[in-house]
Write a structure and sequence with these properties.
The protein is an alpha/beta fold and 371 residues long. It has eleven helices and 15 strands. The radius of gyration is 20 Å and the shape is globular. The protein starts with a strand and ends in a 7-residue tail after the last strand.
Length: 371
């Protein structure tokens, strides 16, 4: 069914298609619209899920963990400080190998108090064991949320998945949305280590020095195995529903001499910037990273000039995306810090980043004399 929806409404529509057993939620700007819409679906009888309105984000994730341990399919949503408040529990969900799906509407971290887009919130969770995907359109927010359940619940993965969408820039942007009937694309959840009252066992007990590292290795093994699961899931989704996705979204990269890289909604701005630069005779291309965990193979960047736009910052180290890309490719890059706290970044700005690139340098957009 074709309709017009915001990014938040698209996520809620996807949840309605999945019909999770439990949705536990606490509102926070700019995510609130997701859980409000899901609550309306539940109270109106359109969604047969148990909706638990809790007193905090920490409790929301705790409730999802408690439900998931029993073998229930679970969903929640949050943003910014809410995600950070969950931090103890996000580690627990991953370590307990629970396939919770969560939408995170990316928003800056205070102080100063700011409610607009920034990726720092989710990037502070990148080492917890959650798989992370970053979307750029309303349609992609819907599709990624649906696929997240199949990926998380696959027995070769059994790790939680976070679907990230830029606050306001996408969460409240209205675009066309084509909804689907998922049918058997999402198979029934079968959690192999679900609590069984007929077979009591300890859960989450103390692990000794001879066991704990093995649990951590098993999480890493599963993240590596998730690469194939993601590829298979996206391939099957394309076969059934006609929309194709990958670990990255590449535009005009085949003959590019310089490639600009970013995540989220900046990816679409980059494509327009590339078209402008091509008209000027600059062989530019763009690469939008969709999956941050597992991190994609970026061998396509080898031997190219690379401009990386980070909507985040790791103080004392640099842009997180730039740092990760340099670690993998061993290439020098032009690192641009832009869009923090919702700072406007247009395709003209991105084209200018490429024109003025200085490989091996870091540039803060809007700050004078900082290269």
């Amino acid at each position: 069914m074709k309709k017009i929806a915001t990014g938040n409404k698209a996520v809620a529509e996807a949840v309605k298609q999945i019909v999770p057993d439990v949705v536990a939620a606490y509102p926070i700007t700019p995510q609130t619209e997701i859980v409000e819409q899901i609550a309306e679906f539940v109270t109106g009888g359109e969604l047969k899920s148990r909706y638990i309105p809790v007193e905090s984000e920490h409790s929301a994730m705790a409730a999802c963990i408690g439900a998931s341990i029993t073998g229930a399919r679970t969903f929640t949503a949050t943003s910014s400080h809410g995600l950070l408040y969950m931090h103890e529990m996000t580690n627990w969900a991953a370590g307990a190998r629970l396939p919770v799906v969560m939408a995170n509407v990316n928003r800056s971290i205070g102080p100063g108090w700011n409610i607009w887009a920034e990726h720092t919130d989710a990037l502070q969770e990148r080492d917890t064991g959650w798989l992370q995907v970053y979307v750029s359109t309303v349609q992609e927010a819907y599709d990624a949320t649906i696929m997240a359940f199949r990926i998380a619940e696959h027995h070769d993965v059994l790790l939680p998945v976070m679907v990230n969408l830029d606050g306001f820039v996408l969460s409240h942007l209205m675009q066309p949305l084509d909804t689907i009937e998922v049918g058997d694309f999402i198979p029934p959840l079968s959690l192999p280590h679900a609590i069984d009252t007929n077979n009591p066992a300890g859960y989450g007990g103390l692990t000794g020095t001879d066991q704990h590292f093995l649990m951590r290795w098993d999480m890493e093994r599963s993240i590596r195995d998730s690469v194939k699961v993601i590829e298979e899931t996206e391939k099957e989704f394309a076969r059934r529903f006609g929309r194709e996705y990958g670990f990255t979204e590449n535009y005009q990269c085949d003959d590019a001499e310089v490639i600009v890289v970013a995540m989220g909604t900046l990816g679409k701005e980059m494509e327009v910037a590339v078209d402008l630069l091509r008209k000027e005779g600059v062989k530019a291309g763009s690469l939008r990273i969709r999956w941050l965990r597992p991190f994609p193979n970026l061998s396509i960047l080898k031997g190219k000039e690379v401009v990386i736009i980070d909507r985040d910052y790791s103080f004392g180290r640099g842009g997180v995306l730039a740092t990760e890309i340099v670690a993998q490719t061993k290439e020098d890059v032009f690192s641009v810090i832009a869009g923090l706290g919702g700072q406007e970044v247009t395709y003209d700005d991105i084209a200018d980043f490429v024109r003025k690139r200085q490989v091996g340098k870091e540039f803060w957009f809007g700050v004078k004399d900082n290269v």
